[in-house]
Write a structure and sequence with these properties.
Helix content is about 20%, strand content about 35%. By secondary structure, it is an alpha/beta fold. The protein contains 7 helices and 17 strands. The strands form 4 sheets. Strands 12-11-10-9-13-14-15 form a 7-stranded mixed sheet, sandwiched between helices. It is globular, with a radius of gyration of 18 Å. The chain has 2 domains: about 90 residues, Translation factors (Elongation Factor Tu (Ef-tu), domain 3); about 160 residues, Nucleotide-binding domain of ferredoxin-NADP reductase (FNR) module (Rossmann fold). The longest helix has 14 residues.
Amino acid sequence: MTLIHALNTEPKAFAIHDMWEEAENIRTFVFKGTLGSKPGQFCMLWIPGYDEKPFSIARDYDGEIWLTICKVGPATEKLFEFKKGNMIGLRGSFGHGFSTVKNKNIVLVGGGYGTAPLHFVGKKHQEAGSKVTMIIGARSANLLMHEKWCEEAGFRVLVATNDGTKGTEGFTTHVLQDLLAKEKIDLIQTCGPEVMMKAIAQMATDEKVACEVSIERYMKCGFGICGQCVTESGEKMCQTGPVVSADKALGYTDFGVFHRGSEGQRKNW
């Protein structure tokens, strides 16, 4: 096997097998096959003749790959024009994913489309005998996603919306704080806006609860060559991350403060 094949750097062609709307401007695309990924890893999706972008993997088992994608820019706007049967390219999986543990009390916290990979890791925890609570947050009820899939999987599902249109009025951190006061939690795993994750990481650290966060950075190659996804400390998040411990994340000076755009420009969260 050549090094380039070992690194999964060549895209493989997949036809869009199915798709559906998860929430407003959020769609799940289904492909037949596998990338052999673990929960929390990501892949690079190539839109032929247009662009390539990184996306977390929402499911990779039972012969199906799910990518849950929000329409937020030119590349995803183009992808949302595609129909069933259209071909795209996928390469990966890449990065360091979430841990899975046996017979523990696990809380997963998803904010917005950051919820995408958490059903995947929750299923793995459940298969290992752990109890799974899923906290899903969004600005309003029409933006909530994966609630149905988590309920059908048997997770305890708690919802928070900023405007109170469903569940607790407020933030996922309010729901988590309430759980921490009532229960012994063994592990918190979170994906979503960095400001939310930074608050959760600090909360978990203060309560001495193990915690992992998924840090999004602009990934172009996926395997540590381009350097686009480095933190201010120089760590390449396509390799060190995207999932890291709360302690490590809180040590990054840019975590929850800013990130870099496609040309390296600073963008505050």
